[in-house]
Write a structure and sequence with these properties.
With 282 residues, this protein is an alpha+beta fold. It folds into four domains: 59 residues, no CATH class; 50 residues; 61 residues, no CATH class; 100 residues, Chitinase A, domain 3, CATH 3.10.50. It contains eleven helices and seven strands. A four-stranded antiparallel sheet has the order 4-3-6-5, with helices on both faces. It has a three-stranded antiparallel sheet with strand order 2-1-7. Helix 1 crosses helix 2 and helix 3 crosses helix 5. The longest helix is centred in the C-terminal third of the chain and has 31 residues.
Length: 282
């Protein structure tokens, strides 16, 4: 493929398509149109590669050099983050890496210039988003739970695990500390069995069905999940609630601003794409 006369190896598109295909397949039912997904992944990959190539070409039109010391800073950071790889590079490969870093810095500078004048959302716009997104912003009900578990697996039978958890339940009924028993007898010891704050759906359905009906401080009866037998204790509970605008204002503002920046870059690239020449290489 030729993009404005520059050769782009089709292997790059194939690699990108393979990655996209896996992402698309992960979100579709098993009886979905796999061939359709493969074709869609190929088309998306081609467009992404073309767009990246065009963006790089546009960025490199700026004759202003990148300061050498900035390139060296980035090169050093790369070496620190990838010591094994860079430590084995030959001088020629180091120059290739330096060129790649310079190109990346040109891209950052170029994109930065495109989005530099995108204004921050106004207070009125942020408030409107808050008002319209109340449902998605609502924090769901949560409980802080501690548990004791005896797993049922290849090394422990159903009967053995049930007998062990019933002995633990007897200790608790005699007044033993839940936290101490959890650390000493649970198959998941540590922190007194504390699992932290959980919302519905984070654990298996059988676990949720027991803990979300328990009052704070209460200890459940023995119950079964696909993992084994459990006893749970609710330590804290927090009902579903909507954060105040003051609590989420900064996040909403940043989210809106980022969306507008992406839109500005997308609009620019659409113009570049319209005047680009893309054709098959011979």
């Amino acid at each position: 493929m030729l993009v404005n006369g520059e050769f782009v190896d089709d292997q790059i598109v194939r690699i990108e398509a393979a990655q996209l295909k896996e992402q698309l397949l992960a979100g579709m039912p098993t009886d979905g149109d796999r061939l359709g997904v493969e074709l869609r992944a190929r088309d998306l990959a081609k467009e992404r590669v073309i767009e990246r190539t065009l963006l790089r070409q546009e960025a490199c039109k700026d004759p202003t050099p990148i300061p050498p010391d900035l390139i060296e800073v980035e090169l050093k950071r790369h070496q620190e983050q990838n010591p094994q790889a860079t430590g084995c590079l030959l001088p020629r490969d180091m120059e290739t890496l330096r060129t790649e870093i310079e190109t990346d810095l040109r891209l950052r500078r170029f994109v930065g210039a495109i989005i530099a004048n995108v204004p921050k959302p106004t207070a009125t716009e942020v408030k409107a988003l808050y008002r319209n997104a109340r449902e998605s912003l609502t924090v769901p009900e949560s409980v802080r739970v501690a548990h004791i578990v005896k797993n049922v697996d290849e090394s422990t039978s159903e009967e053995e695990a049930l007998r062990a958890i019933q002995q633990i339940e007897s200790l608790l009924e005699q007044g033993a500390s839940f936290e101490q028993v959890a650390d000493e007898h649970s198959d998941c010891p540590g922190r007194g069995g504390d699992l932290g704050h959980l919302t519905r759906g984070e654990m298996v359905e059988e676990f949720d069905a027991h803990v979300f009906d328990l009052p704070v401080g209460a200890v459940s009866k023995v119950f079964r999940t696909p993992f084994g037998f459990h006893i749970a204790k609710v330590l804290e509970r927090e009902g579903a609630h909507l954060p105040t605008l003051a609590e989420v204002r900064a996040d909403l503002e940043q989210s809106m601003w980022l969306r507008e920046k992406k839109a500005a870059l997308s609009d620019y690239m659409e113009q570049v794409r319209r005047r680009a020449e893309v054709r098959r290489s011979r």
